[in-house]
Design goal:
The chain is an alpha+beta fold. Helix content is 45%, strand content 13%. The protein has 17 helices and 13 strands. It has helices at residues 16-34, 44-48, 50-61, 76-82, 85-98, 128-146, 162-173, 188-191, 194-202, 208-218, 243-259, 271-279, 302-317, 363-376, 385-403, 409-431, 435-441; strands spanning 106-112, 120-125, 179-184, 222-223, 229-230, 284-290, 293-299, 329-332, 337-339, 342-348, 355-361, 453-454, 457-458. Strands 2-1-4-5 form a four-stranded mixed β-sheet, with no helix packed on it. The protein has a four-stranded antiparallel β-sheet with strand order 6-7-3-8, with helices on both faces. The longest helix has 23 residues, at 409-431.
Amino acid sequence: MPKDASPDGGAPGRNPALVRVSGMQAKLHRWAVAEPGCRFDDLYNFACDPATLLVAYRRVAGNRGARTAGVDGLTVADVERETGVPGFLDDLRAQLKAGSFRPLPVRERLIPKPSGGGKLRRLGIPTIADRVVQAALKLVLEPIFEADFQPVSYGYRPGRRAQDAIAEVQYYGTHGYHWVLDADIHACFDEIDHSALMGQVRNRIKDKRVLALVKAFLKAGVLTEHGQNQDTLTGVPQGGILSPLLANVALSVLDEHLHAAWQPGGALSTSSKRVHRRRTGRPNWRIIRYADDVVVMVHGTEADALQLREEVARVLATIGLRLSEAKTQVTHLDRGFDFLGFRIQRKRKRGTNKRYVYTFVADRAIRAVKEKIRALTHRTSQRDPEDLLKQINQITQGWANHFKHAVVKHVFATIDQVVWWRMARLLMVRHHWGWKQFRARHTDPTGRWTPIRAETTELRPMAKVPVTRYRYRGDRIPTPWAALPA
């Protein structure tokens, strides 16, 4: 990363607050890397610093949730209109410095789970003030804990993405790790034990005011959709800015346990040791975790994978978590499994007897994008055509760029057909066109089809997104503070 780049992609040279915060983050990260056992004190003043609060506020205001209110009914727009940003932050800082700040309960919102089946996921929406303080705490704590996180975890970490986790699964799948423990953690965000989590935080943080503030957010409670107040005895609220970092801190126990053998001097630390273990009938393994989605690749037998399942369950129990008996499975790469919206499976290459590990798009992800398109393109829809095309392009192009590293060309073509026919039927119904009239308006003089267009916006086909192989980065993913001047 260039020296003038910032962790959030901004330009520090034009933003004095961001320069100050980025510099302090670089120092914290450098100290945490240099002293693995060091406990940090006097962090509270950094969290309360005007620059930190300003950067935190800008991140909250730039988030899509800025238009969503917490229990106090205030959105970012309300804050800016009623008190103004300087006054709001000054008041918030005064409360923090005086020790009078108290988080309010999060507002419960139930949304359908992506898996369907009528199941709901509970989100907790904090107030704007609470979000800003959480964002400030994250700015302080993240550089410290990033120094300790293992390279096998990818979710909600700066510079890492789902494609890195998929690439690692594919890499080890092609190197003999054919048995897979596909572990599903039951209600991970809801059941993390607070005492165990705070113990993990205390391993690195000594500042009592910061610890008290983190605990206050954990115990803030929930205002349900029915207007009832509920205490939060376990878990971290999904929807909180600090929650993903705290979940990673808790689950790092599992990462450290299963990845310890890969550390220098460990049983799996060198290729020669791993080869020797296989020759003597002992298994090798590799954990890959993205938030609460866990996969353990096993170079061994099914019995070895089942034994690791019991070991994972024991480690999770120490932080109050358990595996879902219904969803956790031990499978073989030849049968394939779904992970982060992808389908990973070893198959015979057409025309040869060789077998390779392929990454496809999971059926659920394909159904989900088709459902989004169908919801937008009902034939009686009265939406402005240009706005509709812009939203469809945003969905399809974002989806295509996310999955473009899989075996996906035929999927792109199929979804393009769905989108085209949905738009064609919508336009024919709206304008009372027959097929001949529609065709006349969407072909050129030579009879070739032209893109569906409204004003200056035209429908962009997914098939034009280039399909490329994702470069496996392994342990070479830098933190965003590594190249910043400390």
